[in-house]
């Protein structure tokens, strides 16, 4: 049986652009965070990241905003290509952070379940079989008949989470998805995540909620300014991070 994995070797991601076409706020941001060269900017979002995540591992990502967590997840998902180093994966990947991707904003929630299911590799028959269970899990009720352009961010998350976790992906990448919605739905999502993890697949979960990280992840990676500060047991890494924040 093929083993799923994520393997990054000295991965770097650099964003470049022209400050003259980026607006004043963009220019100020790049000047603070990046390197200005002859009217251009270059921002190193990831710098020399190396890690291996194997079958059955549950890995948390922590760090301040701008530390590189979302960029790292997008590299793992194949959305961003490294500008240096090598990123390799084996297994069906389901990213849970691009919530607007794959949604037709003028179509109903129910139609979007079908559309998103097709994009995730499900057959039309599989989608129709799973449709009642997905609808029930969202708890959106009559809103499933409404265009998704009327949805709140939390409703988007419910819909995306219900569809994406219904396909039993081999690698699930999550960026703060459980931080939205009411407590009851969060508890349902947590139960489904534990069911997912019990199947021995790979979970990578970025969050500022350390209680959630501790609940799900036995290993945690601490990122700062695009680099790995620490990679180890969750309790040890979180304790070190909290001590560093004073």
Structure characterization notes:
The chain is an alpha/beta fold and 246 residues long. Helix content is 37%, strand content 29%. It has 8 helices and 10 strands. The protein has helices spanning 23-33, 69-77, 109-119, 124-138, 153-164, 183-197, 210-216, 234-244, and strands spanning 5-18, 35-37, 40-54, 58-62, 84-90, 93-96, 171-175, 202-206, 219-224, 227-233. It has a 6-stranded mixed sheet with strand order 6-7-8-4-9-10, with helices on both faces. A 4-stranded antiparallel sheet has the order 2-3-1-5. A hairpin with a 2-residue loop joins β9 and β10 (227-233). α3 crosses α4 (124-138), α3 (109-119) crosses α5 and α4 crosses α5. The radius of gyration is 19 Å and the shape is globular. The mean pLDDT is 86.
């Amino acid at each position: 049986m093929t083993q799923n994995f994520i393997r990054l070797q000295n991965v770097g991601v650099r964003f470049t652009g022209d400050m003259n076409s980026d607006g004043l706020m963009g220019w100020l941001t790049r000047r603070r965070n990046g390197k200005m060269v002859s009217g251009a900017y270059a921002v190193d979002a990831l710098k020399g990241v190396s890690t291996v995540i194997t079958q059955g591992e549950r890995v948390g990502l922590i760090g301040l905003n701008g530390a590189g967590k979302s960029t790292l997840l997008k590299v793992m998902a194949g959305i961003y290509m490294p500008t240096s180093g090598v990123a390799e994966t084996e297994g069906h990947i389901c990213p849970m952070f691009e919530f607007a991707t794959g949604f037709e904003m003028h179509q109903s929630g129910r139609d979007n379940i079908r559309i998103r299911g097709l994009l995730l590799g499900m057959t039309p028959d599989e989608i129709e079989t799973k449709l009642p269970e997905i609808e029930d899990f969202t708890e959106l009720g009559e809103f499933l008949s409404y265009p998704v352009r009327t949805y709140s961010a939390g409703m988007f998350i419910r819909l995306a989470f219900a569809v994406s976790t219904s396909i039993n992906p081999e690698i699930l990448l999550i960026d703060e998805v459980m931080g939205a919605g009411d407590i009851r739905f969060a508890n349902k999502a947590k139960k489904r995540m534990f069911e997912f993890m019990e199947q021995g697949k790979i979970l990578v979960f970025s969050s500022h909620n350390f209680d959630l990280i501790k609940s799900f992840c036995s290993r945690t990676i601490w990122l700062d300014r695009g680099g790995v500060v620490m990679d180890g047991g969750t309790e040890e890494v979180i304790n070190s991070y909290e001590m560093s924040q004073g």
